[in-house]
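Example 265, ligand 2-hydroxyethylsulfonic acid.
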Amino acid sequence: MTSTTNDTTAGPGRPSRTAVVTGASSGIGEATARRLAAEGFHVFCAARRTDRVQALADEIGGTAVTCDVTDAASVAGLAEAVGPRLDVLVNNAGGAFGSSPVAEADADEWRRMFDVNVVGLMQVTRALLPALLAADDGAGIICNVGSTAGRIAYEGGAGYTAAKHGTQVVTETLRLELWDQPVRVCEVAPGMVRTDEFALVRFDGDAEKAAKVYAGVAEPLVADDVADAIAWMVTRPRHVNVDELVIRPRAQAAQHKVHRVTSSD
Ligand code: 8X3
């Protein structure tokens, strides 16, 4: 784990509110880090790709932390970099790997999905909870980035939907377990969001397959839309807990009901 900051000192010059965003190297994580910085947070930008989080942290005046959420030692390093107090944790690191039907599923892909979407989220939460409980005025908040895939099933999606159902259930469990503690627990569950990497990673770099996910959809959500929702959720007054927020593009009424305009229409 390495961390570098543009401003390591507390006090004048350093914003009083702090946020950690995991998976900050691209997509929703990157957009959320930018947005929270614009809202006045000092953002710890955590991800495996050092060059990317460093460039982002340099740009937004935050702290870059090289961190693999699936690795306990790496997560311990993140907690060390953050220190004793934290206001906001956005557990965004996650992803989909593969789209095979269950009958042809790859166990390693499934393990990777459970590892990053569920175990990683748990490890980061466990490590940073003491700091969140020490946030000023009991205003600490955890926002887990789930998915509409955590609410339904679809063919070829079982490994990912099972993992994202896991994200949802862990969030709910955590809220029950922390009911009397000064910290809030919420989940944002996005539907179709067009990012540079999500579909490309899922289809192992196959750009044609990835493009088909968004084919004919004039306006899928973009990462900034989700960042906007997250920023709203984590900046509510401290007595307000937005349990879960499902956000989709207008064109997507459900996973299987997407309005697509193709050239043959
Ligand atoms: C992404 C939503 O529809 O690709 O989390 O499963 S979907």
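Summary: Residues 147-149, 157, 160, 191-192, 255 surround 2-hydroxyethylsulfonic acid (CB under 6 Å).
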